[in-house]
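pinned: reference chain
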Amino acid sequence: MNMADLIEKHIKNLLNNSNDNQVVLRRNELAQIFGCAPSQINYVIQTRFSVEKGYVIESQRGGGGFVRVMRLDLSKVQDLPLKDLSNRAVSQRQALDIICWLRDHDLISAREARIMSRAVDRAVLELPLPERDLLRSRLLVSMLTAIIAEE
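pinned: its structure tokens
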């Protein structure tokens, strides 16, 4: 298991042991525990604890800086932070991560997942970047809004 995997596992264990699906971390303290640079902690948090994977991150930099990792309530699709997705470029990979997350937690059916995946595919959205990723974001938010309305 590599260092990033160990850090991810540690953070997920902390989340599993929390009462409110969130944990406050200090980058420097985690870096000392794992004997790595704080930038490696940032890397793990940015790549493995994204909105697309069912997490929300709050960060404060500086001497007393911290990172709050919050796991979204898997029982409620309406807890997805749509404002974090609106008006920002969403890659095909990120969109598929969101769709897989929704499917894995039975918030959408397999059929809905296939439809959503096809609608955000780069072969369908034949536009140059960054317009393609912005359109994908708007489509995804629109589909999620429709799903939330059905809940």
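why pinned: The CA atoms of residues 99 and 113 lie 6 Å apart. The chain has a mean pLDDT of 83.
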